[in-house]
Specification:
It is built from three helices and no strands. It is mainly α and about 120 residues long. The chain has two domains: about 55 residues, no CATH class; about 55 residues, no CATH class. The structure holds flavin-adenine dinucleotide. Flavin-adenine dinucleotide binds next to helix 2 and helix 3.
């Protein structure tokens, strides 16, 4: 079991390095000697996202960005179905930093309104 995990880990490292080096080479067509100016390089794959932030199938932008999963296809009203619990993040407005930041602001506003109304 440990051996197969280690073997998979090493295989993934090699694969990531291989893909990363190809990408760097492609970028160097437009930015000559790019790799000579890099001090630290880290390659990541969907498996990295799955491992580090528990992203489903390693999707770095959250739920699929398809028409049926946008707008009403997401948790765009920030409601979780549990009173007082509100949602934010890529599963609400959309993937990417700005939609996620905006979702946090809007969700906090909803939470604040909920608190005010429940104090009455
Ligand atoms: C490599 C990469 C580059 C990107 N570049 C850009 C970019 O240039 N511009 C842009 O707009 N967007 C970019 N994105 C997308 C953007 O980062 C995401 O859409 C956004 O961060 C999603 O925010 P989130 O809060 O929904 O999820 P996350 O930022 O993934 O936060 C979820 C958090 O929940 C934690 N978590 C998961 N499961 C559990 C659990 N069971 N218990 C407790 N905690 C848990 C995770 O550890 C994580 O901290 C990039 C994403 C990646 C991976």
């Amino acid at each position: 079991m440990l051996c197969s995990l280690l073997s998979r880990f090493l295989q993934e490292l090699r694969f990531k390095k291989h893909i990363g080096e190809r990408l760097l080479k492609a970028a160097e067509k437009y930015i000559p000697d790019l790799s000579g100016h890099l001090e630290y390089v880290e390659y990541a794959t969907p498996l990295s996202s799955e491992y580090w932030v528990n992203a489903v199938k390693g999707g770095c932008y959250g739920p699929e960005q398809s028409p049926d999963q946008m707008g009403p296809g997401r948790f765009s009203d920030f409601a979780s179905g549990i009173d007082g619990l509100f949602l934010a993040g890529a599963g609400t407005i959309g993937g990417g930093i700005m939609p996620c930041v905006l979702s946090g602001i809007r969700s906090a506003k909803k939470a604040s309104e909920f608190l005010k109304s429940s104090r009455r």
